[in-house]
Structure formats: structure tokens, C-alpha cells
Design brief:
By secondary structure, the protein is of the alpha/beta class. The chain has 13 helices and 11 strands.
Length: 308
């Protein structure tokens, strides 16, 4: 049995604080510390294929910078996300979002042409208008270059090239040739622009080409691991493909969802074991809480460790 050690409130690095949380015994702090240990092992494992899945909402916040740094530093081999990530990453590369409050009057915001995403404010000109402007020019360019049928990861690389902004997740995915898989590509502003362009151009997104890449990657991998932020299609697509190699060897879930409603978003790693999506002997943990708090702490501690 290990003793519970008190956390010392002294001047220290984030990694030092995380290590103290590991010895603190409980509650979610212990899980947070364990998650850093698992992700460190996963990244240091040269035989491991590493996935990061996440929803779009956090890309509307400053947590976008944490994901961007993960891509820039090549911590992960594959990203799996939703169309909204493309929307927010593109829009914020050219326009600003603003701080708001959950309690704001949405009728008043609607009259002022301001969208509310939680406590983030998204002016209309910073979202739909700029997306349409950039996407119209971008799609015409790649079409003239003869690029008429692309997988989502090829499309994301082209879009990252077009964005050409070092603050962008897609820019670094393009620079480092890290595939970004978007299984729900039509569910967002960028997806809508794709549909609009498709109306009078012989242009297609081949989502099955993404599946071929996922198949090739997981079948060749000796080991695999994933950090799964939130739930939905991004989470499921990641663990779905890993069942074909009998499951992930490393799994870290970051979630605010509950499991008792039967949702995939709230399902814990132990449930995935029954589907062979995570191995019985995998290193795994669930960190309960808002990923805009936990993910910056995890990645900041990880960066300290990997420098050493």
C-alpha cells in the first residue's frame, strides 16, 4: 500500500505539480497524473501508432493552441476530428473570436449577428462569411490544378497549405504530413461549402480513401494508442478501427459525459474492452472533467518530460 502524500503549494513547474498529484491518492488528480504517465509511455514507444481524437468545440477556445503544438511537435501520427475543427481553425486563422458568458442574452446576440459557443462569442463575419470567402477561392484554385477527388486527409493538407498560418492546426498537419481524418466532413461550414462547389463542378471527397488509409495503418501497427478527447464520431472512429488489431495498447479518455445513458461519449475504457477496441492489458485511464482544463495541463507536463 502507498501512503497518501500531501501536495505542497510551492513554486514549481506543471510537471512537478502533476507528479505530486500522482502521490496525492485521489480523486481525479490521481487520474490526471496517470494520464500523463500513459501518454509519455505511448509517445516514447517507437512501435506505437498514436491517435488523437477530439471534437470541434475546443478549437474555438485557446485549447486550439495545445492541439496545434501537439501536431507541430509530432506527438501523434493521426488526428480524427469533426468538420467544425476545420471551420474554427480556418476562421480563427483570419478573424478573431471573443470572450463571452454562458448567461448572455441569445436573442440580443442574434440581433447583433453574433453566435455564442458556450462562453465564446463568434461574430458572423468571423465564421460563415470568412469561411465562404476563403473556401470559394481555395476550391477554385485546387480545382484548376486538377485536384478533383480528394480524401479528407488530402483535403485537410490542401486547406492547411491555403491557410498558411503558424497558429493553425491544419497548417502544421500539412507541414508534417500528419493525416487529419474527418469522417463527418459535410457536418459544418466547410462541408457546406464543399457541397455548394459540388453543385456545378465534378469535384468529390472520397471518404472511403480515408478508410483505406486507416486500414493500412492499423494493420501494419505493432502497437497503437490514443488520447480521446470527448466523444462522438471522432472517438468512435478511432476505437472502431483499432478493434481490427484487437484493440488499443494505450488509451486515455478525457470526458465530462456519464456512462449510465449508454452513450458512446460517456462509455468508459472497460466497456471498449468488451468490443476488442481496447486490449484487456492496455494501459488506460479516464480523466473526468473539462478538457480545456485537463489537456493543457497534460500536454504542458508532457513537454517538460519529453525535453528530458
Amino acid at each position: 500500500m502507498k501512503k497518501v502524500i500531501d501536495i505542497q503549494s510551492k513554486k514549481q513547474s506543471i510537471n512537478e505539480m502533476i507528479r505530486q498529484m500522482s502521490e496525492a491518492g485521489g480523486f481525479s488528480a490521481k487520474h490526471l497524473a496517470t494520464s500523463v504517465d500513459i501518454i509519455e509511455d505511448m509517445i516514447r514507444d517507437k512501435e506505437c501508432l498514436k491517435f488523437l481524437s477530439f471534437p470541434a468545440c475546443i478549437v474555438a477556445t485557446g485549447t486550439r493552441g495545445i492541439i496545434r503544438d501537439c501536431v507541430k511537435e509530432k506527438y501523434f501520427d493521426v488526428l480524427v476530428t469533426t468538420c467544425g475543427t476545420l471551420d474554427h481553425d480556418l476562421a480563427r486563422s483570419f478573424k478573431y473570436y471573443y470572450e463571452g458568458k454562458f448567461s448572455m442574452d441569445d436573442r440580443e446576440l442574434h440581433r447583433k449577428n453574433i453566435h455564442r459557443l458556450g462562453n465564446v462569442l463568434v461574430p458572423m463575419e468571423s465564421y460563415g462569411i470568412i469561411t465562404e470567402k476563403i473556401m470559394t477561392k481555395f476550391l477554385e484554385r485546387i480545382y484548376k490544378e486538377g485536384k478533383k477527388e480528394l480524401s479528407t486527409y488530402e483535403f485537410c493538407w490542401e486547406l492547411g497549405k491555403e491557410i498558411n498560418n503558424k497558429d493553425s492546426i491544419l497548417y502544421w498537419a500539412y507541414k508534417n504530413k500528419i493525416p487529419v481524418i474527418v469522417p463527418g466532413i459535410t457536418d459544418g461550414a466547410v462541408g457546406y461549402q464543399l457541397w455548394q462547389f459540388y453543385q456545378d463542378h465534378d469535384f468529390r471527397i472520397d471518404v472511403l480513401k480515408d478508410e483505406t488509409m486507416m486500414s493500412d495503418l492499423v494493420w501494419k501497427a505493432k502497437k497503437s494508442g490514443a488520447v480521446l478527447v470527448g466523444g462522438g464520431i471522432s472517438k468512435h472512429h478511432t476505437i472502431w478501427w483499432n478493434q481490427f488489431r484487437d484493440g488499443l495498447d494505450y488509451a486515455v479518455y478525457l470526458t465530462t459525459a456519464v456512462e449510465w445513458d449508454g452513450s458512446l461519449s460517456g462509455a468508459r475504457p472497460r466497456e471498449a474492452i468488451s468490443w476488442s477496441k481496447i486490449k484487456e492489458k492496455a494501459k488506460m485511464v479516464t480523466v473526468n472533467g473539462d478538457a480545456t482544463i485537463s489537456l493543457p495541463l497534460i500536454i504542458s507536463a508532457l513537454k517538460e518530460r519529453l525535453k528530458n
